[in-house]
């Protein structure tokens, strides 16, 4: 059949040999490409209406860059920087700036969650002297990922993911 190009945001229409016209599902956009003097069809995926919306928790720019590159071909990604555990505030700002820079390079929006250190201190009370990769880390991961999940649920995201275990001092098994 023949494919009609449509305005952005509309579903393409396919004309069958019998002349019937059918709207295609939102998940596929077909475009024409000239090849050797004749038309050939090329599937192109468009973020609008086909990709699941993913809220990606980001702890810092360096950890997020590779993950964003990989996932951006499969998801409509928005970065989420929610890290009430980072202290001092100068370090927090440095990591936030690095996350903004990474997101900007990949043309991915970045949202900054609330920065209230007291939330972290309350969550890890009694575990302050625990070493890296201990129960304190599990509590901190849970705090940041549950905050990410709450934001995602209230803002129409389909999925969440995180970069928390990618740092050289972190272990995925925690």
Query: What's the mean pLDDT score?
Result: 77
Q: How would a textbook summarize the main sheet? A: 4 strands, parallel
Portion in strands: 15-25%
Radius of gyration over C-alpha positions, nearest whole angstrom: 22 Å
Strands, total number: 9
How many helices?
A: 5
Helix content: 25-40%
Distance between the termini: 54 Å
**Shape by Cα distribution:** globular
The parts where pLDDT drops under 50 for at least 5 residues are 1-15, 22-49
Element order: H for helix, E for strand: EEEEEHEHEHEHHE
Structural class: alpha/beta
Across the major sheet, the strand order is: 8-7-6-9
Give your account of this protein's structure.
The chain is of the alpha/beta class. Helices cover 34% and strands 25% of the residues. The chain is built from five helices and nine strands; from the N terminus they run E-E-E-E-E-H-E-H-E-H-E-H-H-E. The strands form three sheets. The chain has a four-stranded parallel β-sheet, sandwiched between helices. It has a three-stranded antiparallel β-sheet with strand order 1-2-3, with no helix packed on it. The longest helix is centred in the last third of the chain and has 20 residues, at 135-154. The chain is globular, with a radius of gyration of 22 Å.
């Amino acid at each position: 059949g023949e494919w009609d190009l449509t305005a952005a945001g509309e579903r393409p229409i396919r004309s069958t040999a019998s002349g019937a016209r059918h709207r295609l599902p939102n998940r596929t956009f077909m475009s024409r490409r000239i090849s050797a003097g004749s038309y050939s069809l090329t599937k192109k995926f468009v973020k609008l209406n086909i990709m699941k919306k993913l809220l990606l928790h980001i702890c810092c720019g360096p950890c997020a860059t590779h993950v964003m590159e990989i996932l951006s071909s499969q998801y409509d990604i928005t970065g989420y920087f929610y890290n009430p555990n980072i202290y001092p505030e100068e370090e927090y700002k440095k990591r936030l700036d690095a996350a903004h820079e990474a997101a900007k390079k990949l043309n991915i929006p970045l949202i900054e969650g609330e920065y209230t250190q007291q939330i972290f201190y309350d969550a890890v009370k009694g575990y302050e002297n625990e070493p890296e990769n201990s129960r304190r880390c599990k509590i901190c991961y849970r705090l940041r990922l549950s905050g990410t999940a709450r934001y995602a649920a209230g803002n129409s995201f389909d999925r969440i993911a995180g970069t928390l275990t990618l740092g050289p001092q972190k272990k995925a098994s925690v």
